[in-house]
Amino acid sequence: MADIEKIVEKILHFEAGTPLGDPIPDPSSDARNRRLFALARRTGWSCDALDSGGATMCGVTLASYRAYRRRRSQPAPTAAMLRAITYDEWLDVLREGYWNRWRADVIASQEVAEMLVDYVWASGAVGVKRPQRLLGVRADGIVGPATLAAVASREPAALLARLTDDRLRWVDDIVRRRPAQRKWLRGWRRRILTFGSSLSVR
Fold it and tell me: Exposure check for the chain: N or C terminus, fewer CB within 10 A?
């Protein structure tokens, strides 16, 4: 079954520029990921006026962090609090809001799980509904038994190829609708192609 620890390196790479293919791996993925997050904190902050996500730290938006803290009956965070988010909180946001949304722990293919989780991480509800349409199940944004069965019934490489094509079309559509977003298109496409392949970024 898919393992959340294995997606962390890729997400931090695309959100903060940390290295892919750790040249000096730590003895455990948790230790490696904590070290990568410490690096990512240096470059992972973004607050671009053109970015609809607004203030973001290593890919976690202020809205996502607010929802995470609300579920714990904690005060609403400020941008400064988001900038100081801990690795444990960041991983919890990834797990609760994105990994568990796709129920990725029960997806057999690590590569398929990572593509689906990154789709919803990068695109919100679209990242569930579009794959559901592609899988031929009800596009209700809720990953239940029918959606998981449809994922399990597909050959992983073929499903990855279809998901890759769908995500590429989605980001191209974003740029057509909002030309100012073109500044991110190359990075989006590189990210999608990386998640759609088992090969390292070239």
Answer: C
Q: Which residue, 9, 11, 2, 1, is CA-closest to 118?
A: 11
Q: Where residue 201 falls among pLDDT bands split at 50, 70, 90?
A: very low
Q: Is 133 exposed, middle or buried (0-12, 13-18, 19+ CB in 10 A)?
A: exposed
**Residue 45: strand pairing partners:** 57
pTM value?
0.92
- Are residues 63 and 158 part of one domain? no
CA-CA-CA-CA torsion for 160, 98, 40, 86, nearest 10 degrees?
Answer: -160
Q: For residues 101 and 95, what is the distance between their CA atoms, to the nearest angstrom?
A: 8
* Whether residue 114 is found in the same domain as residue 137: yes
Based on the fold, state whether residues 182 and 88 are members of the same structural domain: no
